[in-house]
Specification:
Strand order of the largest sheet: 5-2-1-6-7-11-10
Number of helices: 8
Helix content: 25-40%
Structural class: alpha/beta
Largest sheet: 7 strands, mixed
Strand content: 15-25%
Number of domains: 1
CATH superfamily: Class I glutamine amidotransferase (GATase) domain
CATH topology: Rossmann fold
């Protein structure tokens, strides 16, 4: 089974690493990082780079597609090379997935119209523009499409899909070995729980302000 994790300039590292560390532990699976060209690709912080070992052209039909999000997603929304690869890969994929604003790229490719999906909380209203039934759930499965909310939820998505493919016990083993047992020091991980002034501050600065 081949898992293709998409890279583009200014993607968010954890969006890709979470699924890689969980879903990438499928038995006999090959995880490949892909981009338009095989080259180092910088994350949104600029201080970290991942290597895309293969180009889109070299990975035409992966079994699982994982699309991360991040600030760089905005400039990719009209990237015909990426969008066409997503459509082509999706035509034969067993699962097509995303983390954070990666779902907007799937939507821009026309893959989520009429489906339930999620994204980062700041991007949910924008997702609706593509005919998507946007939901605040952390992980959403609609047919073969599995979308995750913001950044850290990519770990949950990976475990969810891992359980579907390899069974609950295998997913539990991966969760145990990665010691994924969240006990955050603050209960501010969603706009429903965070201080209202912080929510409004980030809404006012969001690149997803609707006009």
């Amino acid at each position: 089974m081949q898992i293709a994790i998409v890279l583009f300039d200014r993607f968010t590292a954890l969006d890709a690493v979470g699924p890689s560390e969980t879903l990438g532990r499928l038995p006999d699976a090959e995880t490949v990082f892909v981009a338009e060209e095989s080259r180092p690709v910088r994350t949104d912080t600029g201080s970290l780079a991942f290597t895309a070992d293969r180009s889109f052209a070299e990975v035409p039909s992966p079994d699982i597609v994982v699309v991360p999000g991040g600030p760089g997603q905005t400039s990719q929304m009209e990237n015909d090379v990426l969008l066409e690869w997503l459509r082509t890969a999706d035509a034969t994929s067993t699962w097509t997935t995303s983390v954070c604003t990666g779902s907007l790229l799937l939507a821009a490719a026309g893959l989520l119209a009429g489906r339930r999906a999620t994204s980062h909380w700041l991007a949910l209203d924008h997702l609706k523009r593509y005919g998507v039934e946007a939901t605040e759930e952390r992980v959403v499965t609609d047919g073969k499409y599995v979308t995750a909310a913001g950044v850290s939820s990519g770990i949950d998505m990976g475990l969810t899909l891992l359980g579907r493919i390899a069974g609950d016990e295998h997913a539990q083993a991966v969760q145990l070995l990665t010691e994924y047992d969240p006990q955050p020091p603050y209960d501010a991980g969603s706009p429903r729980k965070a201080p209202a002034h912080l929510v409004e501050e980030f809404r006012s600065k969001s690149r997803f302000i609707l006009t």
